[in-house]
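Q: Here's a chain of 281 amino acids. Please give me its 3D structure as tokens.
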Amino acid sequence: MNKLLIVDGHNLLFQMFFGMPSRIINKHGKAIHGTLGFIGALRKIINLTASTHLIIIFDGDHENTRAETDPNYKATRIDYSEVPDEVNPFSQLEDIYAALNFMQIKHFETTDFEADDVIASYALTYENDMKVVISSFDSDFFQLISNNISVLRYRGKKTAICDAAFIKDKYGILPEQYADFKSLTGDKADNIKGANKVGIKTAATLLNQFGSLQNIISKPNEISKYRIRESILQSSQQLQNNYKLIKLENNVVLQFDLDSLLYANSNFVTTEVLRSIKLYP
């Protein structure tokens, strides 16, 4: 069965760079732990998903159009241009690109849109052609989950495949309600503020009653709890802005067609890949 694996490149890079037990230096004194972890994890993810098609998408350095909706969006993120290599994941990105080239895996940096938007467009474009797996810890992708789209959260033996049943069990909502849900609760990672006094359980209760964020905002008088009703009324514009920030759609012209994403899967071992780019003896 054909299956498309879409990897959130920076998400995996950060996970491996900061998640490795120690900083690994090769015989030339160059740090390689991020590259080693990235390629090793990628190989395991490919094998785990039995993917026939593959693409890895990295966020490029460009203006973020979502900041036009909310200037505070991702404003708390670290500026890695001023961070020393010892604690800078991007210091090993060039080696990762070289390794992916050796493995003949399609990858690129975004130039206009966020990686999330590009990943969503690939998933939504090709979900009718084959199963799609998005590898990322970014929960924004939960909104894309369908019969043919799932989200993989790689964590070794604790790896989870997130489907509609996972979302229902964890949050008490449907995947298609997740953007509404996160608009209500907010997202600290992206510096998005939700509605006061609306936590996970309250957001789920509201969505189960009203169906969508728009219905909640348009029918505040039907909210039984006074404090929640007042909170929704006071933050209605913020909540609508949140939805614009969080909602992912099929709105990006794709750089590669499906045939070009076919992966030969040559079963390289990690050391062989690193040796090919002269990082390993």
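Q: Can you summarize the key feature?
A: The radius of gyration is 20 Å.
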